[in-house]
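Illustration: Endoglucanase.
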Amino acid sequence: MRSQPPRLLAATLLAVLAASSLQAAGAAAAADYERVLNGTFDSGAADPWWSGAGVTNRVTGGELCAAVTGGTTNPWDALIGQNGVPFETGESYTFSFDAHATTAQPITAAAGESVSPYRGIASQQFTLSPTKQRFTFTFTSTLDFPDAGNGQVAFQLGGQPADNTVCVDNVSVIGGVKPPGGVNPNPAKKVQVDLVGYVPGLPKRATLVSTAATPQTWTLKNSAGAAVASGQSTPKGADATSGDSVHQIDFSSFDTAGTGYTLSVGEDSSFPFDISADPIKRLRYDSLAFFYHQRSGTPIEAQYVGDEYSRPAGHINVAPNQGDDNVPCRADLACGYTLDVRGGWYDAGDHGKYVVNGGIAAWQLLNSYERATRVGDASAFRDGTLAIPEKSNGVPDLLDEARWEVDFLLKMQAPDGMAHHKIHDANWTALPTRPELDDQPRRLSATSTAATLNLAAVAAQASRLWKGIDATYSATLLTAARKAYAAAKANPAKLADPDDGTGGGAYSDSTVSDEFYWAASELYATTGDSAYRTDVAASPHYKAAGLTRAGFYWGGTAPLGDITLALAPNGLPAADVTAIKSAFATVADQHLTAMAGMGYAAPYDNSTDGYVWGSNSAVLNNAQVLALAHDFTGAAKYRDGVFEALHYVLGRNPLSTSYVAGYGDQAMRNAHHRFWANQNDPTLPIAPPGSLSGGPNSALQDPVAQRLLTGCPQQKCWVDDIGAYSVNEVAVNWNSALAWVSGWAAEKSGTSTPKSDCEVGFTAGRWTDGLSAQVKITNTGTAAWTSWQLGFAFPGTQKVTAGWSATWSQAGRDVTAASMPWNGQVGPGKSVHIGFNGSGTGTDPTAFTINGKACKIA
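Result:
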């Protein structure tokens, strides 16, 4: 499990339920359909039951016992309940339960709506005594919440003068219409394609759902409906993971770029798709935009995200927020200090911030940049490429975004060098709740070895990357990393409490040898210190010993150390680095072998745990392994495997669904999120483009999934519903995987834009605080220029002080040079030379335009 399930809490059931009239009804419906989940508490867990303010739930002796704080005014001031309970208009239900209380008191059992306007269906008051009794009543629903929508059952326990404990057991709501199990309400096609597109020059495969034993004729049509290619499918038979009988369609031979293609077999046709590199290039940036949306402690401005997604800053101590500027530890920890932990990214769909999730997410963004600088093309992440406030500060934008989280990780460091595991609301945040309207107190959980090593690893990695950008910041990071690593070694087994799951996921991790290896690898790559090298070589994870098809995630981080040791220059023996790279190719081959037998190819090992919480992130993390295998070997088969993984995530799956919001005709919309909650509140937005859904989870760990999907084949255990948090939540460490892979894939996709008709050569001589640059501009097109204007941006503090052979001007970091009357005419194949003197420091510009068109760099 990659995350812990948040409880869905309607903050104010209010008097609407208390005042709702009991609907007279006869006997319960004949259908023996149980609406309530975990009503017997036999597992020892309370989930999915939630508790409201002033109430603490605990399963004791097979009962759910609620400790209720006295002194409230109304019955609905203290609540326990369960959301996602389906009701149908006109159907009859029987609500029954066992209950007792330490001190006799009345309680109200109610059914109604979990979100505004909190309409009531039925309620009835009962008087409890210290002796357990059975209570029951029947009603007919006046509201319609089918398919585990916004229905709710709750017990109102407030309005009492003193503290009390109320215990319930065998809670049951029987009746209504029983839905079929294992059926996903999203319509699926029989011809499954990547709903977004295929890159020219790369394999193009689709899946046909068919029981036919013989090949079937397929036809590829363009946007006008004209046939442009055809062929025969290859039968593959039953696919256990999806439950489908499938054929494979390979239309790789067709390579004409265009939009609106469809693939048909008989009367069945696919969703439309493109043949173009453009969508994956957009996704590279949309997947990174997710992190700006998730920023805490700063306004999300319309100029970067549009009016729909803009919002005020959350958790900055502006009412009703209690703020993150002075956060104490949980009351039972009594740490004796508070921390200012403003900033960072909200981890997922709630308002929590977690070091172990934020650590791997920040690392993945930073590694994407470092990998591009070592073996790829970092220009795609240069300053000005992302829509963020820092887009003109001279620092690559990918580093700017990552720094928002890195700075938060530093703030989570305790005085003794350890790092607090997480910070979030004291209780689960209501759904929906805009961040700036969250009124709950914020609390730090205990420090942990795992969180401390996350801080050490990421701070060391970031120190390496900022060394040439901001030496002071780099030194600060390294100091924090060294301090954290030393603290972790002094506290090697301080594990996160697995029961610390109120208000936020526990994220417990019983094994931290992988985090020690990761942190030591980062510190060694940054410093070269022999002590860190000793720890690296002595680790049981050394030389990718822990890399398998299971991949890596927040709780299994050893491969992150392997990736750094394989990419960043270090003093390890060449044979050991080669062994690490070879291990990536070996595991990549295992993925490709398994994928060849799948109906819907994805680098995912479901042999042990099935499809788990956040399965899409596992698919993409394994795609990163394939991508690195390509980087290390150059073998095209690994590149093709990466794109197969993206095809699965973007629609070539048994649900005909793109799990990335905004990408494809049937894409995820209703992510489990407190702000992107349009399904619950039409004034709020849907998930923004580039947001990744967690994906199929065969464990079905939320009420919506359990009610809708029981009996589902593994790859079909998903539904696009805001309440289905175990399958449809978002998380920073899932989107970081999408960002890494889509960035890599965009780099490998070539270009679908017109060929450049210009080339610019830039050379500069430098001194302490200045430079003299020579610029050669060449017309590489077929038509003569009558005039030209050169444009570029300085990456540092440089300023043009004097120029020649052009009219020079500068606004901020943006520089233009316009042709003179005597050198504006430039024929094909001809060049013109210009230049300037300047002040300031910084590296060479990384992109140039002539008359607004991008130029090749000589």
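Reading the tokens back as a structure: Confidence is low (pLDDT under 50) at residues 1-31.
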